[in-house]
Design brief:
The strands form 2 sheets. Strands 1, 3, 5, 6 and 7 form a 5-stranded mixed β-sheet that branches. The protein is of the alpha/beta class. Helices cover 23% and strands 15% of the residues. The chain is globular, with a radius of gyration of 18 Å. It has 3 helices and 7 strands; from the N terminus they run H-E-E-E-E-H-E-E-H-E.
Length: 167
């Protein structure tokens, strides 16, 4: 077809490596990987399990001075699932801001859909809290600090399954 424009392939890894190099990182970006997968099979059916969501977004603050800056580490946090947050802060995260937006919190933190799954009997229950983790470019720090902190909160809330809803 003449006059038709087709998208060209954009390599995420190449684009990310170029971005990190432009920021001054000396080591090229590499996908996170694990030689041993740090996951476990379900102990009981999902319809009997308590489920929680984990996000990489930050809490919303009306005061811009309280919002995180790019690459600023604020630490692991938790928010109430009911009522779901109307806004979360995502501008400090690396996502394609030209092609999409994050004004619809449900599009990246589907708490209403999770509640509907509880109502439909597909999952047992939903945690009273969801958890936020900083976007961290250190796999080591994520394993040493963030993952254990989220695990501790999940255990405190008696969560059986944590779903990562990252941006």
């Amino acid at each position: 077809m003449s006059g038709t424009t087709h998208r060209t392939h954009v390599s995420y890894i190449d684009r990310t490596r170029a971005y990190y190099a432009a920021l001054g990182y000396e080591t090229p970006y590499a996908y996170a990987h694990h030689t041993e997968v740090p996951f476990a099979p379900l102990i009981k059916p999902l319809r009997e399990s308590r489920v929680a969501l984990v996000t990489t977004a930050s809490p919303w603050h009306d005061d811009p001075a309280q919002r995180p800056r790019p690459f600023e580490r604020k630490g692991v946090w938790a928010g109430a699932t009911s009522p779901p947050p109307e806004k979360l802060f995502t501008d400090n995260l690396a996502w394609d801001k030209e092609s999409t937006h994050t004004r619809d919190v449900e599009s990246f933190l589907p708490l209403k859909q999770l509640a509907a799954a509880v109502q439909a009997g597909r999952i047992g229950s939903m945690s009273d809290r969801f958890y936020g983790v900083p976007t961290e470019y250190s796999q080591g720090r994520t394993r040493r600090e963030d993952a254990p902190a989220v695990l501790a909160m999940c255990r405190e809330d008696q969560v059986d399954v944590a779903l990562i809803a990252a941006l």
